Amino acid sequence: MPSPTRVLLVDDDETMLTSMAAVLEEHFEIQTCSSPLAALRLLATETFDVVCMDWKMPEMDGIEFFRTLEKQLGERMPSCVLITAHTAELLDQVSVDSRKLLGMLRKPFSPAELIQRVGQFANIARMKISNTRLKAAVRGTG
């Protein structure tokens, strides 16, 4: 039996965190953080498959959080979903390569849209893990 998909929700709005967690907890293992800095500390010690974060947060915005996470985790980088009402503004701020690990979910969204988007990026995370294992196995036999 595969391990449950671990999802970290990062948002300074406690009501939004509670709502998203309630929607997702039937499908995924959920943890929440109301501070991007606290989330970075948590991600340094724990592994998550998907991180969903708000774009507008007081300590750092979602793009800065994503870039910091890329530098901090490298190969261990989880898939990320940026939640915002301003998707068009964000595309220019993220490189094409980084977009492979960064999805966006436009506010307002339905519970079904949230579940679907997190599920899509959980699948990407599983494929990345499988690919990493396959590469390691190939290197081990070469």
Outline:
This protein has 142 residues and is α/β, with parallel strands linked by helices. It has six helices and five strands.
Write the layout of secondary structure elements.
Layout: E1 6-10, H1 14-24, E2 29-33, H2 36-45, E3 50-54, H3 62-73, E4 79-84, H4 87-91, H5 96-99, E5 102-106, H6 111-141
Parallel strand pairs: 1-2, 1-3, 3-4, 4-5
Helix pairs in contact: 2-3
Describe the structure.
The protein is of the alpha/beta class. The chain has a single domain (6-141), classed as Rossmann fold, CATH 3.40.50. Helix content is 51%, strand content 18%. The chain contains 6 helices and 5 strands, in the order βαβαβαβααβα. The protein has helices at residues 14-24, 36-45, 62-73, 87-91, 96-99, 111-141; strands spanning 6-10, 29-33, 50-54, 79-84, 102-106. Strands 2-1-3-4-5 form a 5-stranded parallel beta sheet, with helices on both faces. Strand 3, helix 3 (62-73) and strand 4 (79-84) form a beta-alpha-beta unit. Helix 2 (36-45) packs parallel to helix 3 (62-73). The longest helix has 31 residues, at 111-141. The protein starts with 5 loop residues before the first strand and ends with a helix. The model has no long low-confidence stretch (mean pLDDT 87).
